[in-house]
Amino acid sequence: MQPAPEQSPHHAYPDHWEADVVLRDGGTARIRPITTDDAERLVSFYEQVSDESKYYRFFAPYPRLSDRDVHRFTHHDYVDRVGLAVTVGGEFIATVRYDRIDERGRPASAPADQAEVAFLVQDAHQGRGVASALLEHIAAVARERGIRRFAAEVLPANNKMIKVFRDAGYTQQRSFEDGSVHLTLDLEPTAESLAVQRGREQRAEARSVQRLLAPGSVAVIGVGRTPGGVGRTVLRNLLGAGFTGRTYAVNRAFPADRATVDGVPAHRSIGEIEEPVDLAVVAVPADRVPEAVADCGEHGVQGLVVLSAGYAEWGAEGRERQRELVRQARSYGMRIIGPNAFGVINNAETVRLNASLAPEPPAPGRIGLFTQSGAIGIALLSGLYRRGAGLSTFISAGNRADISGNDFLQYWYEDPDTDVALLYLESLGNPRKFTRLARRTAAVKPVVVVKGARHSGSTPPGHAVPVSRIPDATVSALMRQAGVIRVDTVTEMVDAGLLLADQPLPAGPRVAILGNSESLGLLTYDACLAEGLRPRPPLDLTTAATPQDFRNALAEALADDGCDSVVVTAIPWVGEDGEAESGDGEVLAAALHTAAAAGPAKPVAVVHVEIGGLAEALAAATSTVAQPRPPAQPAPAASPTRTGATTPPGPGPAPTAAVAGAPTPPGSGPAPTTAVAGAPTPPGSSPAPTTAVTGAPGTRNGRIPAYPAAERAVRALAEAVRYAQWRRQAAVPGKVPEFLDDTIDEPGTAGLIDSLLGPDPDPRGLQLAPDQARELLGRYGITVRPTLPAPDPDAAVAAAARLGYPVALKTTAPHLRHRADLGGVRLDLANETALRRAYGELTDLLGKPAELQPVVQAMAPRGVDTVVRATIDPAAGAVLSFGLAGAPSELLGDTAHRLVPATDRDAAELIRSIRAAPVLFGWRGAAPVDTASLEELLLRVSRLVDDHPEVVSIALEPVVVATQGLTVLGAAVRLSPPPARTDLGPRRLPNY
Fold first, then answer.
1. 321 Cβ contact list (under 8 Å, min separation 6)
2. Which of 100, 164, 763, 952 is the most exposed place for a label (fewest CB within 10 A)?
3. Are 622 and 701 in contact (CB under 8 A)?
4. What secondary structure letter does DSSP report for 244?
5. To which H or E segment does residue 971 belong?
6. Closest among 873, 847, 875, 883 to 956, alpha carbons compared
7. What DSSP line would sit under 156-170, residue for residue?
8. pLDDT single digits (tens) 321-349
9. By three-state DSSP, how is residue 126 classified?
10. Phi and psi (nearest 5°) for 142?
């Protein structure tokens, strides 16, 4: 909303302060600056505020605003005097204002850094978290304008406002003066204020999803008068699922005397429905959607599922139509799934919602599924249906104009009906937030992701998604750092999801293989080795094995402390008459279930070939609904853990939230059974027990996943092993070292960066000269070995004399930098003769000195050449990378990545996760290098880019790591104005 022309000519309207926010109850509202055009809105708002609230605001009876008050509260300079309003449906529901003051409390201008702040919230909207959201935004505005503290006077009886300030997490002081509470808030964000903000964000966004998935009533807008069509199909699916709430059919073309459609009350508009409507499913042509949205908004509908097409997928006109749809819905406080959505399903027994076009509705289960593609959603539902898997919730978001995968991660984190989250994503609208939410959710339940458009860089139509410059392999590494199980195909996602939903997490990588086919066992053994598992030699039961033989062998394998999981392979067995028997799958399934139920809780997977009825019998043996957890018991050695974070009442055992102890490296003994300490527990769920629930009969879900190929089963099992190890490690997070010595000069570095960038920095950035880069890095304890220019042979000899022999002669031309394979480097030059000869060879081979830009550098101790980099990606944030130097590593993409700030554990994992890592640890009899020094260097680089976001790129190449110490031989640093951070600042929904 733009201000009138006469307002604040010296300060433009700050439209970047406008924001849509999700409130505590899941509804949305808009926060924006107050302008001179708001006089009537302000008066109307004030008239609806109770006398008590007015008294709390002005400390005296104040029934109405004078003309002078209205002028004062609507005229701001957006620097020293700022007012923000919260609006729903275009009308004010709350306001906040600050006025800059001096140390005596009088009106002031900069450089005064304190302001008086006051709030007023309409009584009908108190308790929705409006004031808390306003405080976040007005604090951000104040910081932008150079204000560092807020002062507020609050009456002692105004407990709600005192609580808003007290719970914000800012550093504050309180005193009682002249009959009022005087509060002073330091506006510098703290760890506590950020935690409070993110906690509120989680609760609000989860609640906004819950309002869509668990409505008390649903209206389908666009139900046809005759059978067929999208609206009629959704209505039929709602009724077929047994939705527990009220259902209405809406079509403006219904005749006035039509009372029902398929037994459901029929209406021509939402306004005709006398009862409240919580959710509207919109299935009308795109040009009629605005009318339907307005009808919903004016009559209190809480959310929309828009199935209508004709939006961003149709080009520029459709993109603008989509943006207007989001703006219109949010103006009424509604959130949207869609447009162009396939629908939503919630299988909770208390809801039974199928507001979708799914031809084969899934059975109830423990898996939550989100997809950005309707076609992929159909395929996934069909695949899960065929394999007998059940879902807790299903969402196909279509164009994903509003509700996204991040919102559903917020919801699933504390959803007691969901043990595994599956997501098909084509883009990450807010990658930093996704990583943060995924890490928190993965600490209590698995998150499995397939990302489409990995190489094309395409984004959902109509979305302003940050363009990432990092390759897909880096994205995958960062997801795994956050605990996300990243798979390549939707088939792999289903395979992993089935095992994680129904089986306990393995305590380690040791796999027992048994079956009646030696060949199939060997294929499984090879697949295990390829996935980094530690298989035992397959146990061949021979083709004459009976179901009882399978039962006995599985029971023995599960009881063996030397294995962490079991893969059963089965082909049709031979009967007494010599004929292959393939139709007794039910008998074999019963035998396997009996053994699994009686043995210790370890994951079991079945690989079968043409055994009729086996997969169906394994899937149908019991429901995937979690059952009551047995009492915690002392755990024997090598006992595993279970996926899932919560345990609602149900007809069978549920997986526990405990995780086995420290990871078991190859060659070591069984993993200990310490439960996860410090892992987050979803609000409302039971905390993880202090001892893992293992080894007790009846703790396994009855369903055993079956796979038609060994590779698929083993791949799913390997993902479970890696995820279990991540969860064990995440239970005791790493630390970011403080480096309390004098080798880090943070204030001095900030001053140096300011001087290098200058008062008017180039938005394209600044590449530092070698001496500048060396000085900057030195302030963080990173020493770069100096180089001296050598424009001619005599200068090279003089430089060598200054540095001391032996020396290296290197070209620094961009096309030859770090390309020893092209002959641009000469090493171990022990004297002047060798140096002059090398200089002549370089210039004869590669060109004139002016082109080569040669330099001389003292030789470093022998070691392994490595590369350390840090970059700021606009989508993913700051990324720390490590690899060996040289063309082979670059060609093979053998580089590891971690998000900044890196912890001590991240640094240790970083250097060990590349494929060439054995070179650092004594490969082929070589002496191991000083990896401790390398880890410290990585942490210092991480600290530098985290402390100073202006450092957008660092490349240390090569870093020679010797048996003792390391040497940085080359460094490149690039500075730029700090990029915008989408994961910091006050809560806000994406703007379009």
1. 286, 310, 311
2. 763
3. yes
4. S
5. strand 971-975
6. 883
7. TT-HHHHHHHHTT--
8. 999 999 999 999 999 999 999 999 999 99
9. coil
10. -60, -45
Would you say residue 75 has pLDDT above 80? yes
What type of residue sits at position 108? A
| Cα of 16 vs its chain's centroid, Å | 25
Task: Mention every residue, 6+ apart, whose C-beta is less than 8 A from residue 560.
Answer: 512
* Short-list 79, 78, 96, CA closest to 87: 96
Q: What is the pLDDT of residues 722-759, one digit of tens each?
A: 999 999 988 888 888 776 566 889 999 999 999 999 88
The helix (run of H) or strand (run of E) holding residue 525 is helix 518-530
Rounded Cα distance between 816 and 837, Å, is: 20
Nearest by Cα to 334 from 370, 372, 306, 369: 306
Residue 428 CA to residue 426 CA, distance in Å, equals 7
The separation between the first and the last C-alpha atoms of the chain, rounded to the nearest angstrom, is 15
CA distance 250 to 238: 14
Neighbours of 465 (CB within 10 A): 17
* Residues whose CB is less than 8 angstroms from the CB of residue 853 and which lie 6 or more positions away in sequence, other chains included: 789, 811, 812, 813
Mean pLDDT, range 580-608, rounded to an integer: 86
Residues contacting 418, CB < 8 A, separation 6+: 366, 367, 368, 392, 393, 412, 445
- List phi, psi (to 5°) of 738: -85, -20
Token duo for residue 490: 């939707």
The span from the CA of 173 to the CA of 156, in Å, is 15
Phi, psi of 786, rounded to the nearest 5 degrees: -70, 155
DSSP string, 856-917: EEEPPPS-EEEEEEEEEETTTEEEEEEEESSHHHHHHT-EEEEESSPPHHHHHHHHHSSTTG
Place of tokens 């880090």: 744
